[in-house]
Specification:
- The protein has about 80 residues and is an alpha+beta fold.
- The protein is about 45% helix and about 25% strand.
- It is built from four helices and three strands.
- The N and C termini lie far apart (about 40 Å).
- The relative contact order is 0.19.
């Protein structure tokens, strides 16, 4: 059975604690992270949470993106501190 993109995304989150769209593109070749997260949440019923982060790009513009992680994970516990 072939491993799907959503399965790779879930494994990535388990291995590294969280994932962003840049991580998904660079490490998994996944250009549609939000679609994979949607399937994990609504089809596989996995409790995935997100936080919004911002940084400045090379032009000094403020850019926002989502970081996804598993509810109850070590990553979430670190956020609560």
């Amino acid at each position: 059975m072939k491993i799907t993109q959503k399965d790779r995304v879930l494994q990535y989150i388990k291995d590294f604690g969280s994932i962003t769209s840049l991580d998904a593109f660079k490490d998994l070749g996944n250009t549609r992270l939000s679609a994979s997260i949607f399937l994990l949440r609504h089809v596989d019923l996995i409790d995935i949470k997100s936080i919004n982060e911002t940084f400045k790009n090379r032009y000094g513009d403020k850019v926002s993106y989502a970081r996804y992680y598993l509810a109850g994970s070590e990553f979430e516990k670190q956020l609560e501190k």
